[in-house]
UniProtKB/TrEMBL annotation:
Transmembrane segments: none annotated. This is Fe2OG dioxygenase domain-containing protein. One of its GO terms (biological process) is DNA alkylation repair. Gene3D superfamilies: Alpha-ketoglutarate-dependent dioxygenase AlkB-like. PANTHER family: ALPHA-KETOGLUTARATE-DEPENDENT DIOXYGENASE ALKB HOMOLOG 2 (PTHR31573), FE2OG DIOXYGENASE DOMAIN-CONTAINING PROTEIN (PTHR31573:SF4).
Length: 595
């Protein structure tokens, strides 16, 4: 649990006790006196997952690890880092109170280990008492309306804290919600930790020594983060090949050497290399159509997502992958040295992506020029990938001219890493994106973007000139409806519209609900050496894709074309490259096909 409340309103913390609100039901709103602050906008419900989870933890004696953020304003010791390992706590009380008109749930947590002084205690505070009086309690009282009993929590007087009672949160005999100041007797109460033992696991596990060369380095425990052995700051592993402490003034840095993985060591159990043409395990649903083509040793599956928008999956086999400069060699190349200097980029503010990445070639939009290494300095693996990806792209769009790709994004995935739903539709890019998969397998999923899948369908606001995306809610009915409008049959259009809404009202409401998920319509099972080519602008405007990597190590090399006239002229040189004559990749089509 992270305790990081920037305004201390209604919350409390001392050396042993924390009182905090259940998360959720808040939005950032303007406040006259305080500016933009997080405010309660809905009542919380007792049935919500957050509250149930904490209730289960309380009933099942599950200790909760607490991390302190530096943003809390509760007047204890200053927090040395942005995030700080606190201690194990247990929940002693859960109760309801009013926050304006809204019901909120509150938790009181008590430190499990009461024998040791907390490191966040204010300077000069007394040592914890040797003997505790666990029987000393705040007075109890019962509600005159619901008869439920609870302690005197607030200084202002006793209030009912039963969420189901009409008198909840109101001082008995008054009809207003109360100001919040906690009763000292209640704060001083201590509940005996029922198990009598400390939690089994460590809150700040010691990082194993000598991890280099072991598979630990790419495991979740390995990449998630570490506590700096020098200054105790909580750190993520930002660099692919280093553990560096980000705390100001701390220069701790340790090289991480990963165990070398081969295409064979990354094959999932019971899966073997494919000798013949690969057998697809992709799934397409609904409106998506598939065509199949054999090209030498390749199997090409082309999925039509909508008119002029295609995803082509090139499935490789062991003969293609085993060739010099092929996927097997490339996988080893990628693991050399510093692993290409991949880093976990920041998404927004302080949040890191899960995957590691590095851009090469022409910079664009999100990639500040210095963050895109020029091709003239790129390792051979990058140029080999670019060469192959250019072939895959041109093969997928046969007959149409596309310039050679001038930008390459190398992405590395460790255990349980993924790239969540996104599109690659930046303004500077053309509509051809090719990716080469190396190492462990992955799922790649495509779905219609929410705004297109569940367009705002209201009878009054219905706009027959809106674009209808294939596969979106009621797309065929809407296409028929809009055709009547376009043909000028206004009466027929009005009647058909009325019938459409009368028939589908309930379903429209269900699909348009805030939490309605959009399912994927295409799922590709990507194996080592496969290419994926996305062709068409709507794949990025109406659709989005995600990649869920499996196994211990996977790379994706994605080539795009950045339109040079949209790049600062002084930075265009980063995308320049020349291929040595005769080295252009041609798809291994010369490989004999064994009979
Ligand atoms: O991991 C992959 O195969 C694709 C990655 C991707 O979608 C991207 O780099 O934009
Ligand atoms: Fe992408």
């Amino acid at each position: 649990m992270l305790i990081d409340f920037p305004n201390g309103d209604g919350q409390y913390m001392d050396e042993e006790i924390i009182i905090t609100k259940a998360p959720g039901s808040c939005e950032m709103l303007d406040d006259d006196s305080r500016g933009r602050v997080r405010q309660q906008v809905r009542s919380q419900t007792y049935q919500s997952a957050h509250i149930k989870t904490f209730e289960n933890n309380m009933n099942d004696h599950v200790a909760i690890g607490v991390i302190f953020g530096s943003k809390h304003a509760l007047g204890l010791a200053t927090m040395p880092h942005r995030f700080n390992v606190g201690a194990f706590f247990h929940i002693t009380h859960i109760w309801a109170q009013l926050n304006g008109l809204h019901t909120v749930f509150m938790f009181r947590l008590q430190k499990v280990n009461l024998n040791e002084k907390s490191w966040w205690a204010p300077l000069g505070s007394a040592l914890p008492p040797a003997n505790r009086d666990y029987l000393k309690k705040a007075p109890l009282a019962s509600c005159i309306e619901c008869q439920s009993e609870s302690p005197l929590i607030y200084d202002e007087g006793w209030v009912c804290v039963n969420h189901a009672c009409g008198a909840m949160g109101r001082l008995q005999g008054h009809n207003s919600s109360i100001p919040l100041s906690f009763n000292q007797d209640w704060l001083n109460e201590r509940k005996r930790w029922p198990t009598g033992r400390m939690p089994e696991q460590q809150l700040a596990p010691t990082f194993p020594e000598n991890i280099n060369g072991t598979t630990f380095t790419t495991s979740v425990a390995g990449w998630k983060g570490f506590i700096c052995p020098r200054c105790h700051c909580c750190n993520s592993r930002i660099d692919w090949a280093h553990q560096k402490c980000i705390a100001e003034g701390c220069d701790y840095s340790q090289k991480v050497t990963h165990a070398i993985q081969t295409h064979l060591s990354l094959l999932p159990p019971h899966v073997e290399e494919v000798h013949g043409h690969a057998i697809p395990h992709n799934v397409h649903r609904g409106h998506v159509e598939c065509t199949k083509l054999f090209l030498g040793h390749w199997v090409l599956l082309t999925y039509k997502l909508c008119e002029n928008n295609y995803v082509t999956h090139f499935m490789a086999n062991r003969h293609i992958n085993g060739r010099p400069g092929g996927a097997n060699d490339m996988l080893l190349e990628m693991q050399k040295g510093d692993g290409l200097g991949l880093k976990r980029p920041y998404m927004r503010g302080q949040q890191l992506t899960r995957h590691y990445a590095r851009n090469f070639g022409m910079p664009y939009n999100y990639v500040a020029a210095p963050d895109s290494a020029p091709f003239s300095e790129a390792p051979p693996a990058i140029m080999t990938s670019l060469n192959r990806l250019t072939w895959a792209g041109s093969e997928a769009v046969r007959g149409q001219y596309y310039p050679p790709r001038n930008e390459l994004l190398a992405v590395g995935y460790m255990e349980s890493q993924r790239m969540g739903y996104h599109d690659d539709g930046e303004r500077e890019l053309d509509d051809l994106v090719s990716t080469w998969s190396l190492g462990a397998p992955a799922h790649m999923e495509f779905r219609i973007k929410r705004s297109h899948a569940h367009p705002n369908l209201g009878e009054e606001s219905y706009d027959p000139t809106d674009e209808v995306v294939m596969g979106s809610d009621f797309w065929q009915s809407r296409q028929r409806l809009n055709a009547l409008y376009r043909a000028g049959h206004m009466n027929a259009f009005r009647l058909a519209k009325r019938e459409f809404f009368d028939t589908n009202r309930t379903e429209i409401r269900r699909l348009g609900a805030r939490n309605a998920q959009v399912p994927w319509c295409l799922q590709l099972q990507l194996s080592h050496g496969d290419f994926v080519v996305m062709h068409g602008a709507q794949i990025h405007t109406s659709y989005e894709h995600q990649v869920i990597a499996g196994g211990a190590l996977r790379y994706a090399m994605t080539a795009r074309y950045v339109r040079p006239h949209l790049v600062d002229p002084s930075e265009r040189w980063r995308g320049d490259f020349t291929l040595a004559p005769g080295t252009q990749y041609t798809g291994d089509l010369d490989l004999p096909i064994p009979l």
